[in-house]
Amino acid sequence: MSTEVLRKPSRPGPHRGGEGGGEPGGDGNGRGGPEVFFDPGRFGLWLFLATLSMMFVGFTSAYMVRRLAPDWTPLRPPGLLWINTAVLLLSSATLEAARRRLRGWNPAGVSPWLTATGALGALFVAGQLAAWRVLAARGYFLSGSPHNSFFYMLSGIHGLHLLVGLVWFAVVLVKARRLAYTPGEADGLGMFATYWHFLTGLWIYLLLLLFVL
Amino acid sequence: MAHAPEAHAAEAHAHAEEAFIWKYVFSKNHRVIGIQYYVTAMVMALVAGLLAMLIRLQLAWPQRDWGVLAKLFPMGYDVGGGFGVMRPEFYAMLFTMHGTIMVFFVLSTAPVSGFGNILIPLQAGARDMAFPFLNGLSYWTFFVGCVVILSSFFIGAGAAAGGWTAYPPLSALKGAVPGSETGQTFWIIGMVFFIASFTMGGLNFVTTIINLRTKGLTPLRMPMTLWAMFLVAVLGLLAFPALVAACLMLIFDRHFGTSFFLPTGLVLNNVPLLGPDGKTFLHQGGSPLLWQHLFWFLGHPEVYILMLPALGFTSDILVTFARKPLFGYKSMVGALWAIAGLSFIVWGHHMFVSGMNPYLGMAFAVGTILIAVPSAVKVFNWLATLRGARIRFNTPMLWAVGVVSLFISGGLSGVWLAQSAPDIQLHDTMFVAAHFHLIMAGAALFGVFGATSYWFPKMFGRMMNDTLGKAHFWFTFVTYYGTFFPMHYIGIAGHLRRIYDPYQYEFLKPLQPINQLITISALILGSSQILFFVNFFWSAFAGKKATENPWQANGLEWTTASPPPHGNWPGPIPEVHRWPYEYANPDFPKDPVMQHEPLTAAEMEVKAAEGPSRHEH
Fold first, then answer.
1. Tell me, what's the ipTM?
2. Best interface-test mutation with B: which of A19, A53, A147 has the largest number of B CBs within 10 A?
3. Is A41-212 a CATH 1.20.120.80 domain?
4. CB within 8 Å of chain A, chain B residues 134-163
5. Which domains, and CATH codes, for chain B?
6. What is the pTM of this model?
7. Which residues of chain B fall short of a pLDDT of 50?
8. How far is CA B256 from CA A142, B279, B522, in A?
9. Residues 141 to 170 of A: which have CB under 8 A from any B CB?
10. Residue boundaries of the structural domains of chain A
11. Rounded distance, CA A113 to CA A164, Å?
12. SS3 call for B240
């Protein structure tokens, strides 16, 4: 079951499956089949992403209001950002390649593509830090102008979420190497992929908001 | 049937010998977590209630020497020369922290996180929440938030003092007031922990209610409490992120020199706030109103996060003690949806005096007044439920009727405040304080008290003492009105809220006797809560043992033992065959017909003849 990915961080040992309604094995409710309308883990992840999106809706409205103030001086994005964007898009593509291997009953082919995803993700974070340094070298600091502030803040928050994604990636990679994911129909990488693609999409959105629109 | 009761019971037994720390401290059981939330909220209520008592003493006798209090709170009273008069900064801290703790750490926590956790799996027919580990994590995140908020009183210059709404620039400039230093930083950190915890809870609530309902529990067979919990969780998930965004920007403004909320030209203590170059202002072009919009985008749904559970509890309790079906069940569900939906588009009514375009103000006013429609639907349905009923007046029923009363009286003043023209006169006066204490704080509080006495068997397996409970109700009910009703009058007379010494103004001097009356009432109100605390803890350990269904109610939570065992039902989870309010059905010799009782042969015949019946969806 794909809920395995979310269940993984829970404590092993005596804690596991104690008061918590019998977690190990099955859906923890002693029920299954028609009563469970969606997979709870997947549903919960989508809800969380909705919440996260609302936070960025809040930032977007603040950005649009703040942009109307007379002191707005636009920030020219460093070229590195476009390379970073390409790297992140590529990481989403390799993740899809990994999922395709899993679906195609080729579990051994999964982990190379998955490793590429994580490496590209790490490269993206490094690239973002480099972009910050480029801007700082040009004299664009966090408090210099509101556009700077928004760029540093939003790219920073996005980067933090990507770091969380990298931790999750490590967990997923270990499982993939142990061939813990059932090939075929059940796509064990699904939840991780949902989160990862969400972050890719979010970055594209932020880029459009900050520098294109 | 996909139940696996035997396997589950066996597994439960295998884990019965669990260490205390995993069973009661870092528990993953929904009931234990709910009680943890509830008791923590009680502690926080004690703190915030004491702050309120100090506020009331100050408003009644502002320049008095409070020798004893000065010894207890040396930071708050001028003790030089034995003159123990409250300091203005301390007063600002009192009302700020009273509001913050009460709104978030008590009245969002006890009904939602407390009773939500206790009741959702029981009413939905689930073994536990969807994500038990996340649930435990959410409690401990909340606990850290409480510690941060409480510790802020003792660090640096004291706790935050910029109002529970934390408007910049007061909250964004570290030097603005003493509380704007570490106190405000702690306030923000505490709030972020609270929101993180509430979000984890909300994910659990919505996922559990959507995914883990037992067989046959269609949406329109869900009891009102379950509906309220579902909508509250959705509101929290969609509204709180805006405050997270605002809090992050506030941190950047406070600590990293950005200007999201801080305008240009700020002067502190007659010194202009200049940037590092010494010529231009440090902050440029920010908008304090932006904070207000983001805050109230959360803030208005937040008041319904407090209210909706109380409305749900009230519906469930009224029906049980009136022994009649809930009048207009579907319209009650629709009204909850309407209130929840409208709450997202009316936040501007908190900002009528901010200089907004009058047409925009009009739009917000119309949206706000529209909320009166679903609210009236609820009230009339409750009254219709009570009409002609042979009511049993046990403690829970008294509280439920109290909610109806407060909902009406607080709602009526809401209609005044919803319109921009009267609001400009009444804004920031005690009239507003009266309004929201009646409807939001009062109804939520009464709802929690009602729910506590009603579902106490499911919390601790015992009954609360009815006599003590009734005494607590009557003291609270009378003094609650005694405290907050006169505030309408002094508010109309021009008494501002958040004011340290009203009598420095000539025109407010005649209001002092009323303020003293309010304070006396408030002190009785505060002390009568001792009855509740005594009743709660005494009953939890030594109360009368409760039976499975002591109130003869018909919901799923009453089909299992009090308190419910591990996994909530020892055997298979009951299936639901009926709507939640099958009371006084003349076709049955007994009352009520429980939600899980199968349809009789006669009912099946009628159903087959009519197609889907009125309770079948």
1. 0.89
2. A19
3. yes
4. 136
5. 32-263+284-556 (1.20.210.10)
6. 0.90
7. 1-14, 613, 615-617
8. 8, 19, 43
9. 142-143, 146, 149, 153, 157
10. 41-212
11. 19
12. helix
